[in-house]
Amino acid sequence: MNALVSALSDRELLARLPEVRGLERRAIAEVIAHLAEVERRRLYLAEACSSMYTFCIERLGYSENEAHTRLQVARLCSQFPAAQEALESGAIHLTGLALLCPKVTEANVHELLEEARAKTRREIEALLARRFPRPDVLPSITPLQPTLLEQGNSGPGALPEQPAQSAEPTPPRARVEPLSASSFRVEFTASAELRQKLELAQNLLSHAVSSGDLSSLFERAIDELLAAELKRRMGAGKPRARRSLREGSRHVPVEVSRAVWERDSFQCTFVDEHGRRCSEKRFITLEHKQPFARGGPPTVDNLALLCKAHNTHRAREVFGDAHIAKKQAEDKTCSKVLSALTNLGFRSKHAKQAIARVRNEGVAPDVEPLLRAALAVLA
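Predicted structure:
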């Protein structure tokens, strides 16, 4: 291709460039339309991806920023076809639509799109600043824990740049940056409470970690946290008497849980038709291959690790969309009731037990009757 372009005369090169630019614009608009439809059909799940964001990065090779921008615009175009038309015609570029995304509503979509036509990024930023003014930033110097940074042998890093399109302040994102093959720079913003806890930890562990090095303190803390969480999920690893399961119980014996977590390597086990496994390692749960509701036992062979997205995907395949929508509505109701009970001073554990009990007794999954019944149990 480079040889073909190099062979063009100056006049041919300049004449052909607008044509190629038009092809690029139409290709981007077509990509956005495809992304929106793939997300609408949830096809990324069958490709062993837990989200469209993961699909764009792992299957399509986009960078994180490219994936974020295209998904923003795809969702905007899916909701407002006029945005797709503006992109296809070249009236508004991809970056411009991404800037507009947080501010577009049913009420202002046509007016905003019209105002943004043929404008550069800076002009669209100015348009948004005029229509959605933000308060002035007061001159200030914000301390970023200088004492702790000095004690941890780390210099203060620059805060991540705030996105120009966001009207509300967003907290700085944590950063993990490789410095060498065996060392990383970890940077995040801590609360005043965390700072006090860190200083207390430095004082209490001054004999064990005399330098007060933050890296050593965090590693010790993470080791303790992981040990406690692994013990909760998989037991202490010591032989223990097996409990006989009650009929209809969802309880998974700890030795079964440990075997499944270790076998599945703490990762979602969904595999697509090409043999590609989902890479998700967050929001992972033990799930039944043969559903519990259909008699599936809590055994090592019948249990597997699934991420939240693929667990819901499997459930849709087995029970259908209507059933999943109903369960999600019920879960939302139970969450509201749980929040109300904890705000009244009940412990979360006891409130969850009360909600589960009254649900098993057949109380309707509506906020008022569920809350009244749960209160009666707790009181």
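Summary: Residues 144-171 have pLDDT under 50 and may be disordered.
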